[in-house]
């Protein structure tokens, strides 16, 4: 009986301990999820997908692009930011072209005519929003672009080490640990950043071969081995094409630590195995969190038994695309991380057909498009479409919307031919995809930030209404930031826009502008009558952070020279005969109303007898503004028609929208240069500032008419959002048009960034072929409101008449 009671007691204690352990594990998992969800709500992920009309250009051609803004998890259009920043970076990461693009309904488009000053080479086109500047530049959208300047010498300097390769090793889970088997992925690329097919061996410090390896695809592969020594690096010998052998060191193994291994155990399940050789951790509780984007899909806990534990994950619970698996210890410290790629199910299905497979020159092409979901339900979509001639220069397909949103936007570094991983579900592609996850593993955040009790600090706010011009108010003598100083931004124009802001503790001011397109002369100043000690600087709105990824050098083949000559001639012909059409821009509709709305009083001075002195104009025709002469000169006093009192302070005085704080200077102006005068006869509230009325003068041309601004004001040329260039393509609807002697040298037949299918998912388009025969590629990229994405490519031929 005593033995039975003892067994019962110990059994009950064991059950209670299990319940306590389970409860603690459940609490820890709930805490992990809660922290992650809270962090995700404060750090919204925004992505920009960029579609260019083609991947290869010669200088002088126009580069066209389309932008789609989506949320980082579900890929639904995200209409948060109204401005995107687009840059073309050279191999040194220097911006050679920049543009601000207006985003409406989470989409925008733009173009550059590539200048003759560009040198031949590979470039990177990157795009981001102001909100995205809060995060790593690795999050920015970037695509490779090749540009050849045929007006400059194309000779390539021979590399001193043409066989040089870059070799990187990536232990699964993060580290090699002594005495524990680990999978090690590797990536071997040449100087151009392309994968190199190689094989090799791994030797221990004594020179004994412990493993062999061979690349699978794009210079990537993996091998497994067990390091039996810690603190020393094993050596890989790599045999290159031609017989050259190079050696590289593997990461040194740790004496103690954790390993993580992922394997496919069935069509519907994964197994993640955690192991540790730390004796006191052999029975430790560990936790698994799997997330995709900002959504947790898997969370589980297990206790290591003999230093080993397993998690079995149902694939159906994982989101499509990349899942991040992270292992935590009981103190919520991340131990290992592993990425897994689940090929997305069919998304937006785009059917596109041409009315013929073969056309003559200057012949009409009719395209029929339809968009459906994977269940064949009609799905309206926003698409962009390019049709260009295939030649020996255009050998690499551009990045499509599927491979960007599902793959490359969540990976670090350059992925060679990302479209390959979407071509099929063959075992080779599945293995290559997993190798890619091992070599490009990367997280968009630090778990220390997730577990921090502090709210994230963001320097850059999203531009939710329009472009925000940022500046800094500083002391004119010391250069120190000046807080709590009012500043004013304006651009001389007949379209009256004036903005104000008060500097924060760092002297920073932000002006949220409206209808800010094209190049403008900005005037930025403080109230010079009150704050003449300060000056204002404009802050560069473009990001000055860059990725560590190198732009691969251009590898030029002499076999391209003939085709380049043709392409260059075609470009010059087009620019010579159609320059006017190629430089046409569509101006956005702008509200012509002044920022203060309808004024209380308006005076068109040409309707009155003209005086030669502005003082007489004000005294004779503007009863709502009293002119007073004091010891320091003229003052304006506005009669408040609402409260029927005279306001004591000078009103806000504007000339073509630019504040003028010295009334004496405006009174010295020739009134014959002024066409119109508006008056607000009451206190006017603009943001946090209050004006004792408002007096606004407008000249005939809106250019200040020679008025000299205060020398403390900053006057600077500033590029607003880009005007949209009109894509030009001739039409040959009549016999006379078809027989026109003007040459049609287009290789880009059609570009349309705003193709929208209707409610029934259908759309019809038409364009005409040019004078150049050849094979033409049609590329369509689409995005639906529900987050479904898809692309479609097909070709047709154009033949010269016999």
From TrEMBL:
Q: Signal sequence span per UniProt?
A: 1-25
Keyword terms of this UniProt record: Signal
- What's the name of the protein? Macroglobulin domain-containing protein
Q: Which organism is it from?
A: Hymenobacter jejuensis
């Amino acid at each position: 009986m005593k033995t039975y009671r003892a067994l019962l007691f110990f059994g009950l204690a064991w059950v209670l301990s299990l319940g306590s352990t389970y409860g603690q594990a459940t609490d820890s998992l709930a805490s992990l999820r809660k922290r992650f969800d809270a962090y995700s709500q404060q750090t919204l992920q925004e992505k920009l997908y960029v579609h260019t009309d083609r991947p290869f250009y010669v200088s002088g051609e126009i580069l066209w692009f389309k932008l789609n803004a989506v949320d980082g998890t579900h890929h639904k259009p995200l209409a948060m930011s109204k401005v995107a920043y687009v840059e073309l970076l050279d191999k040194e990461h220097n911006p050679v072209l920049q543009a601000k693009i207006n985003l409406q309904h989470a989409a925008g488009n733009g173009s550059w005519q590539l200048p003759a000053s560009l040198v031949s080479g590979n470039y990177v086109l990157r795009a981001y929003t102001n909100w995205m500047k809060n995060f790593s530049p690795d999050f920015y959208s970037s695509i490779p672009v090749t540009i050849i300047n045929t007006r400059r010498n194309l000779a390539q300097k021979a590399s001193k080490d043409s066989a040089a390769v870059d070799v990187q090793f990536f232990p699964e889970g993060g580290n090699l640990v002594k005495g524990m088997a680990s999978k090690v992925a590797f990536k071997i690329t040449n100087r151009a950043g392309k994968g190199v097919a190689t094989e090799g061996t791994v030797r221990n410090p004594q020179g004994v071969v412990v493993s062999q390896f061979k690349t699978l695809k794009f210079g990537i592969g993996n091998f497994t081995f067990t390091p039996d020594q810690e603190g020393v690096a094993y050596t890989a010998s790599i045999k290159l094409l031609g017989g050259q052998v190079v050696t590289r060191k593997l990461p040194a193994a740790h004496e103690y630590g954790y390993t993580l291994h992922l394997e496919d155990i069935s069509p519907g399940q994964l197994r993640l195995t955690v192991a540790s050789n730390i004796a006191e951790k052999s029975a430790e509780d560990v936790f698994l969190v799997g997330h995709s984007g900002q959504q947790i899909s898997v969370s589980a806990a297990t206790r290591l038994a003999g230093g080993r534990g397993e998690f079995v994950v149902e694939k159906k619970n994982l989101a499509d695309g990349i899942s991040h698996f992270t292992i935590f210890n009981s103190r919520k410290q991340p131990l290992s991380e592993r990425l897994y790629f689940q090929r997305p199910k069919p998304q937006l299905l785009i059917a596109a057909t041409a009315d013929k497979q073969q056309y003559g020159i200057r012949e009409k092409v009719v395209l029929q498009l339809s968009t459906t979901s994977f269940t064949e339900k009609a799905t309206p979509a926003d698409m962009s479409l390019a049709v260009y001639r295939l030649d020996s220069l255009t050998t690499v397909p551009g990045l499509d919307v599927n491979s960007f949103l599902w793959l490359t936007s969540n990976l670090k570094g350059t992925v060679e031919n990302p479209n390959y991983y979407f071509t099929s579900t063959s075992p080779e592609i599945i293995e290559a995809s997993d190798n890619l996850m091992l070599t490009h593993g990367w997280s968009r955040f630090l778990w220390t930030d997730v577990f921090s009790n502090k709210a994230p600090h963001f320097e850059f706010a999203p531009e939710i209404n329009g472009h925000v011009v940022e500046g800094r108010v500083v002391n004119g003598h010391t250069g120190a930031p000046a807080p709590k100083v009012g500043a004013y931004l304006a651009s001389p124009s007949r379209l009256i826009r004036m903005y104000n802001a008060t500097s924060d503790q760092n002297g920073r001011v932000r002006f949220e502008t409206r209808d800010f397109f094209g190049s403008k002369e900005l005037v930025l100043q403080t109230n010079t009558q009150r704050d003449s000690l300060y000056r204002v600087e404009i802050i560069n709105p473009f990001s000055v952070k860059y990725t560590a990824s190198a732009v691969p050098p251009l590898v030029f083949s002499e076999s391209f020279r003939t085709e380049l000559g043709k392409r260059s001639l075609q470009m010059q012909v087009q620019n010579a005969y159609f320059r006017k059409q190629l430089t046409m821009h569509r101006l956005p509709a702008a509200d012509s109303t002044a920022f203060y709305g309808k004024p209380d009083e308006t005076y068109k001075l040409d309707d009155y007898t003209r005086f030669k002195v502005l003082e007489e104009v004000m005294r004779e025709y503007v009863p709502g503004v009293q002119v007073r002469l004091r010891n320091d000169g003229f003052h304006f006093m506005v009669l408040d028609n609402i409260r029927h009192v005279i306001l004591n302070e000078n009103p806000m005085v504007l000339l073509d929208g630019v504040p003028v704080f010295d009334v004496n200077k405006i009174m010295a102006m020739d009134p014959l240069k002024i066409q119109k005068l508006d008056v607000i006869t009451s206190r006017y509230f603009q943001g946090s500032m209050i004006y004792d009325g408002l007096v606004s003068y407008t000249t005939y041309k809106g250019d200040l008419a020679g008025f000299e601004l205060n020398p403390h004001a900053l006057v600077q040329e500033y590029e607003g959002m880009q005007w949209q260039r009109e894509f030009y393509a001739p039409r040959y609807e009549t016999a006379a048009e078809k027989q026109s002697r003007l040459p049609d040298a287009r290789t880009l037949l059609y570009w349309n960034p705003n193709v929208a299918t209707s409610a029934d998912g259908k759309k019809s388009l038409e364009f005409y072929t040019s004078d150049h025969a050849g094979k033409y590629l049609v590329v369509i990229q689409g995005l639906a409101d529900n987050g479904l994405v898809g692309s479609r490519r097909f070709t047709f031929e154009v033949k010269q008449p016999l």
